[in-house]
Design a protein that fits this description.
Elements lengths: L7 E5 L4 H12 L3 E6 L2 H13 L6 E4 L5 H14 L5 E4 L14 H29 L2 E6 L12 H24 L3 E8 L23 H13 L4 E4 L6 H4 L4 H10 L23
Parallel strand pairs: 1-2, 1-4, 2-3, 4-5, 5-6, 6-7
Helix pairs in contact: 1-2, 1-6, 3-4, 4-5
């Protein structure tokens, strides 16, 4: 089992939402927190939340996860000033939430850089130390959108499919070459953090908008138990089976569930920083 107490844990996109909640609970469990986000005010708020939960003062670093150079520079500072990372929580994520042709080239590229490419750069920065110490856990906060395409989420779904594939490949590579290292991928439905403000669900008893506090507790428990995959709610686990059906039937099922209309009234987090991980 992954030991949280006395582990050094880096959370990307820690300035708000899920990142803040995870940071506070991990600190309460005895972890030493390193926080990354593009928003310095958000980082300060999370640092206060960590200390209010009884955690030690975290190390905070302003970092734009869409820029590889900034990631590597921040990683060098962490290794020099804090030391090696035991648990890496790749939480950073953004969403455009528009029909495909209404997304600008820049928005699409930024979504892919923050949601997908940043996983590679952060993991490459800290994995050598994990291998050397024969201790480490890479956590990828993906999405149920990594299993199924959704209208108005073309760039987001593509990035989350990449995240799921990245985790799976890393997991089997660890099994083959570094069995002492662990991975966890988290694939939730919409979470009520503000990032997806305005989304709707047709059948809340089947596909509820998830409570962030519940999600945070389940993620931390999954990390503690070295659980390879956490999918929420349970219905999302059936998506791979539905994918075996012909596309017309597949699409009709997801239309019936309201998934392809879930983004119709999306407004998202207002006044947020582009590139921040407001999960």
């Amino acid at each position: 089992m992954s030991r949280i107490k006395d582990s050094t844990i880096l959370v990307t996109g820690a300035g708000s939402g899920l990142g803040r909640g995870m940071s506070a609970l991990l600190a309460e469990r005895g972890g030493r927190l390193v926080l990354w986000d593009i928003d310095p005010d958000g980082l300060a708020g999370t640092a206060r939340a960590v200390e209010e939960r009884g955690g030690a003062k975290p190390a905070t670093f302003v970092c734009d996860l869409s820029r590889r150079e900034e990631i590597y520079e921040a990683a060098e500072r962490v290794l020099r000033e804090v030391g090696p990372i035991d648990i890496l929580v790749n939480n950073a994520g953004i969403v455009s939430g528009r029909p495909f042709l209404e997304c600008t080239d820049e928005q699409i590229e930024r979504t892919m850089r923050v949601n997908a490419m940043a996983l590679f750069w952060t993991t490459r920065a800290f994995l050598p130390g994990m291998i050397e110490r024969r201790r480490g856990h890479v956590v990828t906060i993906a999405s149920s959108a990594g299993f199924v395409g959704v209208a108005r989420l073309a760039d987001y779904c593509a990035s989350k499919w990449a995240a799921v594939g990245f985790d799976e490949s890393l997991r089997v590579e660890f099994r083959k070459y570094h069995p002492c290292l662990k991975t966890t991928v988290v694939c939730p439905y919409y979470i009520d953090t503000g990032m997806f403000a305005g989304v709707k669900t047709r059948f809340p008893w089947l596909l509820p908008i998830l409570d962030p506090d519940v999600v945070v507790r389940r993620i931390v428990r999954a990390i503690e138990r070295d659980r390879p995959r956490l999918v929420m709610p349970w219905l999302i686990r059936t998506v791979p089976l539905v994918k075996f059906l012909p596309p017309k039937i597949h699409d009709a099922i997801f239309d019936l569930l309201g998934i392809n209309h879930s983004m119709d009234e999306f407004v998202g987090r207002q006044g947020g920083h582009a590139g921040a991980a407001d999960r």
